[in-house]
Amino acid sequence: MEAQDKAPINRRQFFLEGFSSFKDLAVDLLSIQFSLAQEGRLRPPGALEETAFLAVCTRCGKCVDACSYRAIKLVDAENGFAFRTPIISPRETPCYLCLECIPACPDGALLPLPKEKVRMGTAQLDRDACLAWQGHYCQTCVNRCPLSGSALVLEDLRNPVVNSEQCVGCGVCEYVCLTYPPAIRVKPQ
Description:
Layout: H1 2-5, H2 11-37, H3 50-56, H4 62-66, E1 72-74, E2 86-88, H5 101-104, E3 121-125, H6 140-144, E4 152-155, E5 159-162, H7 172-176, E6 184-188
Antiparallel strand pairs: 1-2, 3-6, 4-5
Helix pairs in contact: 2-3
């Protein structure tokens, strides 16, 4: 009896609802695939959450053109659905938080934020690989951090420590790290 109480849906509603459900599932699956394939690569500052970002970004490349440091690159064809979306590879060129990419984005995929509120990721320090934590003098990451004194601080005036509440994930620390592989890496948001 309950089935008779429901109003039948027309063909258009059926396809619209089906397509919407399929699109949401496909975007979720592809964003997971992209995240795994791009480990260590960051979205530009102010980027929406990954699924929303992939849905909103039109792949125009204007953020790439606006980046005076040439830190932002476009994803290559091997990465399927994320093709031509902007990324930053901090070991190649980090984000220096100039934020010129944000006003260049016509799609709203990059939200205007002050640099202290940006969250591209969080730096993670491997104390076993860090020169300072191994007894050598090194403060390179702390000295070069754009938010030094808040995102990266020195413990006992010697050893770097990441303040995850303040770290914006720009990747400068990873870029300047003297060890290979770097003792400090940014985990994408």
